[in-house]
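RETRY 2/3 - previous attempt timed out on the joint model. Re-submitting the same 637-residue input unchanged.
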Amino acid sequence: MLEHVRAHLTGAFRAEVALHHDPRRPADAWDARRRQHSSKKMLSFLLEQGPPPPARVLGITDQDLFIPILTFVFGEAQLGGRAAVVSTARLDDGVPVVSPRVLAERVAIECVHEVGHAYGLLHCASPRCAMGRSPSVRDVDAKKPQLCRDCLSRLAERNDRSGG
Amino acid sequence: MGNERTRILVVDDEEIVRESLGGWLEKDGFFVQSVPDGKSAVEALEKERWSILLTDLKMPGMDGLQVLEEAKKRQPDLVVVLMTAYATIDTAVSAMKLGAYDYLVKPFDPEELSLMMQKIVSQQTLVRENAVLRKALKREYGFHDVVSKSPAMQQVFELARVAARSNSTILVLGESGTGKEVMARAIHAESPRAQGPFVAISCAALTESLLESELFGHEKGSFTGASARKIGKFEAANGGTLFLDEIGDISPKLQLDLLRVLEDRRFHRVGGTDPISVDVRIVAATNRDLRKAVAEGKFREDLLYRLNVIVINLPPLRERKEDIPLLVEHFTEQLGVEMQRRIEGVSSDAMVALMSYDWPGNVRELRNVLERGAVVAQGRIIQALDLGLAPAAVPEGAAGVGAGAAAAGASDEVPATLEDVEKRHITQMLAHTGGNVSQAARLLGIDRVTLYNKIRKYQLRRGDDSGSQQRPG
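RETRY 2/3 succeeded.
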């Protein structure tokens, strides 16, 4: 699955992607009342533990994530920042049981989506683009793990402005 | 959906909520500003325009209901969504009666938030498009606040535009309620005097001496009770337009006084000795037959000739029933603004009733009936029963409806069945909206799918079937 994600990230962002397996979890991210992990705390943990700037860091976790106002999120990223996180928890709860191939595709889509936010991209109006908003698994399945032409040009524009 | 023009104001006393909601909505392309309390929200509402207000219900100080109330005072069309905990759903529901759009129970499902935002954005887009359409419609069919597409009224507009540019006295004739004062105001607005005052007076409402004093003013002590100098309507209208309504009702003495002013452009205040010169354009109006009044010796012939340099005849509403849908749209929009609530139009049954009625009170009566309907209506669409038209005026059979439809210019043939009436009415609506099915559906008070089904059923063309109406620009 990680290789699948890496391939798509490299393709979408033309960036070098390093894989690292770390079994640690941020202790303060668990919210006992909600029985979920705070995605914000996850992002802070990734920034502390991840590679030094200017590298971006993406975490993939099997824990269910939330932001305070929403019941759950598939992932979260700092808009135009360095960190992004994606949870597999709600991506494999489909009925019938999701095949590993389908799950890997969903995770890749959401990873490209969250890293896209970290690169400063907003939600895209195209339901097929990885940057299309996906409040449900149904929406994730409608997307592809690639950026549409418009998002690619927005990304190139941003990269030009920020000097790469 | 990212609509960059949509500006959202978030009000919540919890910083973490403001931060997470703001971050989430920004990724959707919204412009978001977050404030921690009601007071800051009111300040933000006073400074700038917002499309959506997302406010927490329970907050210290000013709560969500008070924020809603203040917001609606400042911006009646603002979409307000309340964020609430399970414990306060009842309050949120009652808040919707105060004008809230909807409520979200914290924490909300991402799909629920997404759907609500999408719905709001598309409704606002629709409202913007409708506003553009309405403006286009008014450009094509309007003369300031007078709207009409009837050929007779188009000729009136043409004459009024030319007359407005001159300085000549204008006599507006028409039955009661045909909009004589609205026309006078439109002429003033179109004239080079538009920046000057528009002063209106009804000559029928006052006794001779009071009207004389109202028109020309009086000096202090000129009669019992004249404790101070009073400026009359002629002086007040200097540089602008004086509208003399019900001119056919003035006494012979005042007819003579008025004739002198029209000839000399000078007059005396009651009890005054110095002549006063004014630059006033007179627009007079009456529902009386002045020629007949002249023949009966009740009106001065020389005054009539002074007044009727340009005559504008306003046809009664029963002779221009094709204007009713246009007037309904115009008035429901006005009433919505006045009543600070959304009124989307009238149902198809209500429109049939309006088209079938004879309108003895003309446009004024139509507006009053719609106002009553808007007050009584439970939802955003005014239903036939809400209009309170006398049962005799609302036909129960197809023949009655047909008579109305025929008078509306649809056909001379009396339709035989209700289906005929429906077919004819839909055809008229489609012609009225230039084939715009969404707009026609809204006016008919049905959804688009139902309208499409009816178009198929009656094999109608979406464009102008009558060949007599123009597509709005």
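Chain B touches chain A through 23 residues (CB under 8 Å). Closing ticket.
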